[in-house]
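Much of what follows relies on a compact textual record of a protein's fold. A complete example follows; check for yourself that the lines match position by position.
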Amino acid sequence: MIHKTLCKAGPRLNWFLSTKNVSTCWAPKFSTSSTNCSVKKSERALDVSLDNAHFDSKTLSLYEGICKGERASLARGITLVESTNKMRSDQARLLVNKLTWVCKEKAKELGKPFVSFRIGLSGPPGAGKSTFTEVLGKMLTNSGHRVAVLAVDPSSGTTGGSLLGDKTRMPELTIDSQAYIRPSPARGHLGGVTRTTNEAIILCEASGYDIVLVETVGVGQSEYMVRDMVDMFCLLLPPAGGDELQGIKRGIVEQSDLIIVTKYDGDLVPAARRVAYEYMSALKYMRPISKLWRPKVKLCSAVTKEGMEDVWGMMEQFREVLEEAGEMERRRAEQHQRWMWSYVEEKLLRLVREVKGKEVEDLELMVRKDMISPGAASDKVIEMFLEQFRRQA
């Protein structure tokens, strides 16, 4: 509903979002009739704008440290990005903007479309995500890769706190000089990831990590927001993860590029095989997201290492197929567009919540007393919000 209202708001919204009331960084404006020439002009303007970005001394130091691959600077940079303080958020936007440009230039120098391969690892609680991540991470660092792990930990709905204990399950990867692990609290954000995971990925790429693993919290059937952040989405399932009917159900299974049945060892081998066969059968009834790739099912054990090489081989095959066809670039472009609107909705929601006055308090009281429906009250709040910036215009 907010999105439809904004479309009607037109130029006034553009003016409002550019005022001091909204924390925004420079961004090129494209019309539907933009030509390649106008895009190039906008890119040159962006380059100049980033060169003149008003970093404070601390942010400038972080930028230089991240570009040099300093782990301490990367850690502080992600902390800055996660901050909800308005002034720090402004600096975080500038930092992410400039580092995005750095990644783009690095990719051009390497002759590749991107500087890293982003892999999302999701699954229900107890699927062995952290153990799998450590084994895969060690295997990659031993092969010469630099690996960044962004692990999301659930936050308490009562206190808001998080244990951030994912690193305790990755003791070997934690001390690996070619790896970086960053646990972050979900803070009530749905979808299995944090609000700032997307920006954290960019910081890791700018710091020289060519493989970025995003490990989500334990999720359910409809939580797959990480899909819009990564190049490849992998679903980890434990043995006894349900019958064929569970696999046919739409949702996270349908969004997966690779299904990995974990704990393929000991007494669980028969159960793991049965689950793998059932999901192989279920995938036949699903339309693949890409015409170039049909989702696969793999068995592996992070304890015995059996199947881990096959899993990574399948990930490399996926990357090669999609990169050669240009599908990877298209995916990322669509992801960037979706995240742009996600940020717009987030900022507008925050601004609408800041609408103050006796009328808002009266509406809240009427909703509590069942005198007006929440939907009707929300329409009035949005009208009040739009009226405020009409007066400011």
About this structure: The beta strands are 117-122, 147-153, 179-185, 211-215, 232-237, 258-261, 296-299. The longest strand covers residues 147-153.
